[in-house]
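so my prof wants the structure for this chain in the tokens format not the other one, which i didnt know existed until like an hour ago. anyway here's the sequence
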Amino acid sequence: KCYGNEGIILRLSNVIGEHDPNQRFLPLMLNRIPKNKDVEIYGKEKVLDFTDIYDVINGILTVIKNYDRMGRDKLPIYNLAFGKGEKLVDVARYIKNKYKSKSKIIIKKNHIGEVVRYTACIDKIKKFTGWKPTTDVYQTIDRIIKNENYYAKSI
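here's what i got, hopefully its the right format
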């Protein structure tokens, strides 16, 4: 309300892309699997919604362009995500196959309190702005491997 604007809240979901040194799921897989190191996944059925960094940038720019229309919404909270969940086991297997890795994918029990299944509903942001994501997690992985090979070379 500082300048008379109410504001808009964007909820981003598991943003992924190049040069991500975090210890979150995808950077960890892209760091360990090319080195033939084993990986652990906590939850056989765990599903997350991954969003490509370029989709996030495009989504934020689209929100800025449509701010006046969106700001009139009574609850201006929008999910900015891919809108489709992927099993972590499937994502890890995909990376393992891309690298022809000998890594073992070890499935462990879910951690207490962790999200087991999350897929964002992006209907609201589509309705107000027309924005929709274009790059799924597998396309992002392919781009990372092709353009950077960043994780395999890091620590």
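also thought this was worth mentioning. The longest strand covers residues 9-12.
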